[in-house]
Amino acid sequence: MALKCASLWVCARNPCSNLGASDCGSRNSGAALISFKLDLEKFRKWECCRFGALTQQAITPVEDEKPHVPGVESSGAIERTRGNEPRGFHKDLNLLPKPLTANDLSSSPSDGSKVRVAYQGLPGAYSEAAALKAYPKCETVPCDQFEETFKAVELWLVDKAVLPIENSVGGSIHRNYDLLLRHRLHIVGEVQMQVNHCLLGLPGTRKEEIKSVLSHPMALAQCDMMLCDLGVLRISAHDTAGAAQMVASTGLRETGAIASAKAAEIYGLDILAENIQDDKDNITRFLILAREPIIPGTDRPYKTSIVFTLEEGPGVLFKALSVFALRSINLSKIESRPRKQHPSSVVDNSNEGSAKHFDYLFFIDFEASMAEPRAQYALGHLQQEFARFLRVLGSYPIDTVL
């Protein structure tokens, strides 16, 4: 959905003669200082720019990124055995909310008395903890797949969605970058959270008895040193809380799980070891998504996320990024992803034949609010001179509290 701000205009009263410094001209001097060799006439067209025009352009879809709902993928699981359920386990499971699936996206939303937030995973997942950090009194709604969290928001089953986007150890979560482009939700906030992994087992189990460990592949990678010391078999699961539930349901004493302390409490497991991640400063950044964008302000630090593609040519990426450097805008994140259905383009360098190169989408986070003229000028410059496609994913407050 486009940002409804048709009446919002940002105009500069004075000529912009020093765009490299602050995008504003001098009132007292007849001859302005020019810090960079820029064509003044190109920039005057941006002195009176309409913020609504940028956000309207922001929702222009890429031709090869059409929304779709994939089938629910089943994660690998070890064979369940009946009996030997830990104490209190079956009672807790019956009280837990059931995850949404692709077949459940037809019910009505709640009465709106409190915020409903969707997340991927089961109760006890780190994404649920991120949702509760952002909205302490919210009602959390678990979903089986990342795709279903997007659909839950789009179909008004929930108000917001929280999904992980990058980790300080494991890096970016590429699947969610692709989903951001495929769907038309807006980023309205972020959550940064310290992740402390625990080794969980059935009640009475000792760490030395564990022969295999289940968890999400990224959690397994983040605890590599401890797992190597134990010499255990690693088994991938769909999410950390799901791994804890699987250990509790199978009743196998030689199987452990890497998950949160909250998951141990929910599924009736013992914590065999705490803070087992290799890097103690293990931080995951989550995005908060909504149907409508928020109106950005300037009262606090803001971050803006965009995605764009570039024209072909030498040094085009360098020139495109310079529109931010000229205005002293700091870039906090840059991520490139090949375009899905057009992964390569043919470039002829006047030699015999032609070469194929990957055609990339660039995701960028920069530290400025879209309410600031310098951010508007930067995106206007980028769109006018370099970008074939540009979309603003959101402009939102920076989370500074871990």
TrEMBL record:
Pathway: Amino-acid biosynthesis; L-phenylalanine biosynthesis; L-phenylalanine from L-arogenate: step 1/1. PANTHER family: AROGENATE DEHYDRATASE_PREPHENATE DEHYDRATASE 1, CHLOROPLASTIC (PTHR21022:SF20), PREPHENATE DEHYDRATASE P PROTEIN (PTHR21022). Residues 65-90 are annotated as: Disordered. One of its GO terms (biological process) is L-phenylalanine biosynthetic process. This is Arogenate dehydratase. One of its GO terms (cellular component) is chloroplast stroma. It comes from Carya illinoinensis. The keyword Cytoplasm does not apply. Its EC number is 4.2.1.91. Residues 116-291 form the Prephenate dehydratase domain. Residues 305-397 form the ACT domain. The keyword Protease does not apply. It is found in: Plastid, Chloroplast stroma. One of its GO terms (molecular function) is arogenate dehydratase activity. Pfam families: PDT. It catalyses: L-arogenate + H(+) = L-phenylalanine + CO2 + H2O. Residues 79-90 have a biased composition (Basic and acidic residues). Converts the prephenate produced from the shikimate-chorismate pathway into phenylalanine. Keywords: Amino-acid biosynthesis, Aromatic amino acid biosynthesis, Chloroplast, Lyase, Phenylalanine biosynthesis, Plastid, Transit peptide. Its main location: plastid. Signal peptide: none annotated.
